């Protein structure tokens, strides 16, 4: 069993170490500016500076009213096809803000799922360590493996977004990756995975 646990511990170590470094780089070191930024509409800078979903909604509400009014007028005059209107204001700003709000809500759901499943992983891991030490090594090992699988999967990389909500998600993943790394080292020590003792099952 110890050979299996050693292999899995090394794989988990490499996965957590690499993704922790990656999260830290993306959060603090990755360049996010582009020479083309000056050509983007100012609306994108407002979106990136939004501190909450409510703030985005406050920006979206007047733009949406402008769009509704413009659609009403267009339905009377039919002066331009809809696909041409979508490239102009206020349609363009409305679409940009709508996309930002949708993305923010998606990131919020991801953060909620991350924290929930990480808690599940903690429970599995704690039960696994206790079971491994006190009663059954195979069952304990299975629970520990399940717990660390949750850690690694839910703290794995995602795509970059445009709002602070992404930074919040990334910060959560970085923090939990570091915690997972520490927990992995603790599990290796508690279970004696890399100890020099013989791998006897002692009747378990």
Offer a concise description of the structure.
Helix content is 76%, strand content 0%.
Task: Provide key terms for this protein.
204 residues, mainly alpha, 7 helices, elongated
Description:
This protein is an all-alpha fold. The chain has one domain (2-30, 38-191). Helix content is 76%, strand content 0%. It contains seven helices and no strands. It has helices at 2-29, 42-49, 53-77, 82-85, 91-134, 137-154, 164-191. α5 (91-134) runs parallel beside α7 (164-191). The radius of gyration is 25 Å and the shape is elongated. The mean pLDDT is 85.
The helix content is: over 70%
What portion of residues belong to β-strands? under 5%
On the 0-100 scale, what is the average pLDDT? 85
Helix run count? 7
Whole-number count of domains: 1
SS-based class: mainly alpha
C-alpha Rg, in Å?
25 Å
Q: Judging from the principal axes of the Cα atoms, what is the shape? A: elongated
End-to-end separation in angstroms reads 12 Å
Major β-sheet annotation: none
Strand segment tally = 0
